[in-house]
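Collaborator request, handled under Task 6.
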Amino acid sequence: MSIVNDIRTAFSRRDNALNQLLLLNVLVFVGFILLRTALFLATQDRNAHLPILEWLAVPSVPRTLLTRPWTLLTYSFIHFDFFHILFNLLNLYWFGSLVREYLGDRRLVSLYVLGALVGAAFYVLAFNFIPAFRAAPAILYGASASVMAIIVAAATLLPDYTFSIILIGPVRIKYIAAVVVLVSIAGINGGNPGGEIAHLGGALLGFVFIKQLHAGHDLGRPVQAIGDWIGNLLSGRPNLRVTHRSRAAEAPNAARKSASIKPEQEEIDGILDKISRSGYESLSKEEKQKLFKASQK
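Structure tokens returned to the collaborator:
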């Protein structure tokens, strides 16, 4: 079937992280719809799918979580409500495209994974240490914490970038992110307090991730290392051997690499002049990347 081939092609590409995240969420969503329908038809029980869900969603009870550590990641791909997944995927596409353009596929995936982990940590801690949350055991699922991390990361990275919103017009994404965070704060005393706390955990991660990146620290390196190890394991590729060369041989290569990565100061000044004349959106993709690299020095 062409659909199966399209899916296989999407996951075989190494520079397609955003589409892979979107597609994985959709596939899990469709899979759960089919599973829930099949179980209902077989058992006439509308909750027959809950035991399976509990094995994939984050439990609020730490003792249960210790027996299901994989839920810290699997929960971030599970949705049941159509508008829930629609809202998450639209934001993942819009803001994820910005993150991918300026930071690359690997850091986009790192943000998604770390946002899920921190969101789950906030959820479990809130349910066990904040009196207002102490209630019956609950579970957490959905990509909202990961998406919040990407939204806030994009707004921290490019605060003055604008999106055109229907009936409103151009809006800087720093204001969009601020509204989304305020909505989560306001929702803590609503019907989904645990989910809102997880959203705030993801938002905090997104902010800290970019600030640390500007300081020269990539919080996503452990995620990328684990991803590389899993990828090599699945593909059967051997690990690369490290060979040592003399400093005399390395010096010319290092100089060439430094010259190719770090933009010249005159070029940066020209880019800044272009921003002052025509605005940030007038920059090309290459100019924006050079400006971002210069900000990390």
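The cover message to the collaborator said: "The beta strands are 58-59, 139-140, 162-165, 169-172. The longest helix spans residues 17-43. Please let us know whether this matches your experimental observations."
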